[in-house]
UniProtKB/TrEMBL annotation, chain A:
Endpoints of the signal sequence: none
Record domain Beta-ketoacyl-[acyl-carrier-protein] synthase III C-terminal: where: 386-466
Protein name: 3-ketoacyl-CoA synthase
Transmembrane segments: 20-42, 63-82
Subcellular location: Membrane
One GO MF term: fatty acid elongase activity
Keywords carried by this UniProt record: Acyltransferase, Membrane, Transferase, Transmembrane, Transmembrane helix
Pfam families linked to this entry: ACP_syn_III_C (PF08541), FAE1_CUT1_RppA (PF08392)
Record's keyword annotation contains Secreted: no
Native source organism of the sequence: Forsythia ovata
TrEMBL record, chain B:
InterPro entries: CAT-like_dom_sf, Plant_Fungal_Acyltransferase
Pfam family, one: Transferase
Gene3D superfamilies, A to Z: Chloramphenicol acetyltransferase-like domain (3.30.559.10)
Coiled coil: none
The protein's name in its UniProt record: Protein ECERIFERUM 26
Top-level taxon of origin: Eukaryota
Similarity comment text for this entry: Belongs to the plant acyltransferase family.
Length: 496, 428
């Protein structure tokens, strides 16, 4: 029975039936109203013009009634507009492009690894196998201190990296949006693993001489999904402060967190995490409505930390030699899958068209009442979104999501190519992916984008944007000099 | 990895790598020729000394940046050796890069140069000394060392594996770096693509020929590309100014034949060394000269051999000079045949197989400018020289003229040579 079903569903007939069903359900209101309006207008026309006039004159309104009804209407309208949440717009964003001196080809990474881990050939072998299958390319970047043999990650080197990345991104953003530092009302910086005192947000305030009454926040320890947490925080703060804008900086500072030991589970992040950062400007100002690139539609946050296994699956700890690193558990993919399911259960009703929701409801009822063996219906999110930005956490993450959401290769292309060109840049990877889509000229006005990020905790966060205006293919940005080479075919295993 | 050398004279040593800025095409290789493989156990070391202004105010990243552009034009220097199934070495151009070493010296540059005058071997601390091996796939062929002196001066040390090319190629590499720093575009193609060729040499072996005199079989060294000497080799370096040179040339010239500085100096030094070596005086010497062809990369020196049938010690220097002048038979082809016989697996040395004289007068070593600053002094030497020793003739400082001579000999001979030269020829 299951084999027959796929053959049947790919037949042309069923395709048209499905299309018809979707059209019907999604526009049900239109389909109901049109016949009613038609009937009413036919009836009125049947009556004839004199009869219409007599009916009109017989209905006489008291002045009090008219005033009361208008006040009621105005009152309801005011309450509605006042309680509507402010629209949040993304004016523009800028991604950091590392200089060529930070480039790390595979061969250099392996050679340094061999020299640094002289006494642990098995660990070196493990790293090589990870790198071969990682989906990274030969142009990813590591900060200057990590290029040393052995790396000597001092606080000063970490601050240097933070300065280079954050200030470059902000400078680029300011140039694009023509905003002045004193116009920034809210500042949020998120960097998971480097949290000096004074904070990175204080560093930004100091460098750009931001106002003394700025609302600044610094989020640390929140993992790769912290970028969307920052967006959520900015949205909430912008509800309280009218006519304001928020500068968000998402980055991950690699220098102090490069694992220098030889435990295999903790060497994995070294192979995947790379230098990167992004600066984003959000605004709730009326004036920015026309020039903003995107409008924020929803942010959905799911936290699975209540489950012990999920809590411990990305865990920073010391290895037996006392070297600190991040331990990734073997259940990571399973937990990610569960977190994703949780998240899309909440998102589904918000974004899916009525047709998909109905189908999902029917299959759910069917499974509960009739036959639990029915395959759960996976709603077709491709109908809700034109573009997908899946956090480039690793090849496995993208594969898993592609499978779970039944996405085509083109939908996950932005994620895979970002992983190839920039590696896993943690919270900023979503912005590199968005930039890829723009650079390829695929973003059109009205397109809906779904950004999904996973992070330690275990968290799965989503943000949904709508493209607000026509976007010209950018001539600057991190993809500018290499977009023509993409997409590339990424082999399963790269021969080193 | 040591963080200081020579009892703290050189300290604060940091290692990293620099590579090409652009990604190379996949499967690009560089296949060294037979002549190149015959030179694989030798390493060229060059030191360029710059005054304070050249590197003032530059951070390490500023210094590294031009190398990333330079290396786009030299993909072979960034690759690593592999062996084919038959064992022949080739370079896989995989962007691995060049090793970059930073160090500091506790002396000022003037103090250092004074020390080096007494003991030229100190210069080995200013160049990286890593050989290729024991793991070919993880050994860089080119290494750079930037040593900052107490006065702010900087020395740029280069270690260049001779298998990549001769001194002329190495100088070209450094001169191109100078051009990149000056924002000039190097007129070399980027990433010379050379797809891997299947081993084409199915030549029927010629009749078994004897190895030419200019080379000596050693080893087998396996994957450790250095020859083992029976004694420690030391370097002696001295300069000869124009007056001394012309005086010498006139002293030697006879019957109206004029000898070039190279011939004159070589003859003189040959005789001095013969005197030092007494019974085992070198009757055969190898001569390396710049070839007439204008090929840029690779090992293109003319290698010839001269043999004296008479005792050197009593000979007239002008006879020796004449003998050197007459040396014209190019042994390169013979060397290539010997090298190719077992497909590049055998190990040879050229420098030091016999007492070797290399004419590097025309090496453009003073053309490497850094931010419009010329080097204060340049010294070249060769590591991995065999026991018979080698003498290199280098150009002197452009403003002074003259020549620089570097003699790499067993350590007991060095002192004797110095006194011998002082005594006989009034050179210091």
């Amino acid at each position: 029975m299951p084999e027959m079903l796929p053959k049947f569903s790919t037949s042309v007939k069923l395709k048209y039936v499905k299309l018809g069903y979707q059209y019907l359900v999604n526009h049900i209101v239109t389909f109901l109203i049109i016949p009613i309006m038609a009937a009413v207008s036919i009836k009125i026309l049947k009556l004839g013009p004199e009869e219409i006039l007599t009916i009109w004159n017989s209905v006489h309104f008291d002045i009090v009634q008219i005033l009361c009804s208008s006040f009621l209407v105005i009152f309801i309208a005011t309450v509605y507009f006042m309680s509507k949440p402010r629209s949040i717009y993304l004016v523009d964003y800028a991604c950091y492009k590392p200089p060529i001196m930070c480039r790390v080809p595979f061969s250099t990474f392996m050679e340094h690894s061999r020299l640094n881990l002289k006494d642990n050939p098995k660990s070196v072998e493990f790293q090589m196998r990870i790198l071969e299958r990682s989906g990274l390319g030969e142009e990813t970047s590591l900060p200057p201190e990590i290029h040393c043999i052995p790396p000597n990650p001092t606080m000063e080197a970490a601050r240097n990296e933070a300065e280079i990345v954050i200030f470059s991104a902000i400078d680029s953003l300011m140039q694009k949006t023509r905003i002045k530092p004193k116009d920034i009302d809210i500042l949020i910086v998120n960097c998971s693993l480097f949290s000096p005192t004074p904070s990175l947000s204080a560093m930004v305030v100091n460098k750009y001489k931001l106002r003394s009454n700025i609302k600044s926040f610094n989020l640390s320890g929140m993992g790769c999904s912290a970028g969307l947490i920052s967006i959520d925080l900015a949205r909430d703060v912008l509800q309280v402060h009218p006519n304001s804008n928020a500068l968000i900086v998402s980055t991950e500072i690699i220098t102090p967190n490069y694992y220098q030991g030889s435990e295999r589970a903790m060497l994995l992040p070294n192979c995947l995490f790379r230098m990167g950062g992004a600066a984003i400007l959000l605004s709730n100002k009326r004036g920015d409505r026309n020039r903003a690139k995107y409008k924020l539609v929803h942010v959905v946050r799911t936290h699975k930390g209540g489950d012990d296994k999920a809590y411990k699956c990305v865990y920073e700890q010391e290895d037996p030699q006392g070297k600190v690193g991040i331990n990734l558990s073997k259940d990571l993919m399973i937990i990610a899958g569960e977190a994703l399911k949780s998240n899309i259960t909440t998102i589904g009703p918000l974004v899916l068209p009525a047709s998909e929701q109905l189908l999902f409801l029917f299959t759910l009822i069917g499974r509960k009442i009739f036959n639990p063996k029915w395959k759960p219906y996976i709603p077709d999110f491709k109908q809700a979104f034109e573009h997908f930005c899946i956090h480039a956490g690793g090849r496995a993450v993208i594969d898993e999501l592609q499978r779970n959401l039944q996405l085509s290769a083109e939908h996950v292309e932005a994620s895979r190519m970002t992983l190839h060109r920039f590696g896993n840049t943690s919270s900023s990877s979503l912005w590199y992916e968005l930039n890829y889509i723009e650079a390829k000229g695929r973003m059109k006005k009205g397109d809906r984008i779904w950004q999904i990020a996973f992070g330690s905790g275990f968290k799965c966060n989503s943000a949904i944007w709508k493209c607000n205006r026509r976007i010209k293919t950018p001539t600057d940005g991190p993809w500018q000099d290499c977009i023509d080479r993409y997409p590339v075919h990424i082999p399963e295993i790269v021969k080193l | 990895m040591v963080s200081s050398m020579a009892g703290g004279l050189i300290y604060d040593i940091k290692l990293s790598s620099v590579g090409p800025g652009k990604v190379i095409e996949p499967d690009v290789v560089h296949e060294p020729g037979d002549m190149d493989l015959a030179m694989k156990l030798h390493y060229l070391k060059a030191i360029y000394y710059f005054g304070k202004q050249a590197f003032e105010g530059l951070t390490t990243l500023n210094i590294k940046e031009p190398t990333f552009i330079l290396l786009n034009h030299f993909p072979a220097t960034c690759g690593r050796f592999r062996r084919t199934e038959s064992g022949r070495p080739y370079i896989k151009c995989n962007d691995c890069g060049v090793r970059f070493i930073e160090a500091k010296c506790e002396k000022t540059m003037d103090e250092w140069l004074e020390m080096v005058k007494e003991n030229a071997s100190l210069e080995k601390y200013l160049t990286p000394n890593q050989i290729i091996g024991p793991e070919l796939a993880f050994s860089p062929t080119v290494l750079l060392q930037f040593t900052k002196f107490k006065c702010g001066g900087m020395s740029v040390g280069l270690s260049w594996a001779h298998v990549l090319g001769d001194a002329f190629s190495a100088a070209e590499f450094m001169n191109t770096l100078g051009k990149v720093v000056a924002n000039e575009k190097p007129n070399r193609p980027i990433n010379l693509a050379q797809m891997k060729t299947k081993s084409t040499n199915t030549k029927i072996p010629e009749k078994i020929m004897e190895d030419p005199l200019s080379i000596k079989r050693v080893g087998p060294v396996g994957d450790n590309w250095i020859t083992v000497n029976n004694c420690k080799m030391e370097a002696l370096s001295f300069s000869v100014n124009d007056t001394q040179l012309s005086h010498l040339q006139s002293k030697i010239s006879s019957k109206g034949t004029n000898f070039s500085p190279f011939e004159a100096l070589s003859a003189v030094i040959w005789q001095c060394i013969a005197k030092i070596r007494r019974e085992s005086e070198p009757k055969v010497v190898t001569i390396c000269k710049k070839s007439e062809q204008n090929k840029a990369d690779g090992n293109n020196q003319l290698i010839s051999v001269v043999k004296a049938d008479y005792p050197i010690v009593e000979a007239d220097p002008s006879e020796l000079a004449a003998l050197m002048k007459s040396a014209s038979f190019d042994e390169r082809e013979k060397i290539e045949i010997a090298s190719e016989k077992d497909d590049g697996v055998s190990d040879f040395i050229v420098y030091g197989a016999n007492l070797t004289f290399a004419n590097l007068e025309e090496v453009k070593c003073y053309e490497f400018e850094y931010r419009e600053q010329k080097p204060v002094y340049v010294s070249y030497r060769i590591d991995g020289v065999g026991d018979a020793g080698a003498v290199l003739l280098l150009p002197g400082l452009p403003k002074n003229g003259g020549r620089n001579v570097v003699a790499i000999l067993p350590e007991n001979e060095v002192i004797e040579l110095k006194s011998e030269l002082k005594r006989e020829w009034f050179m210091d």
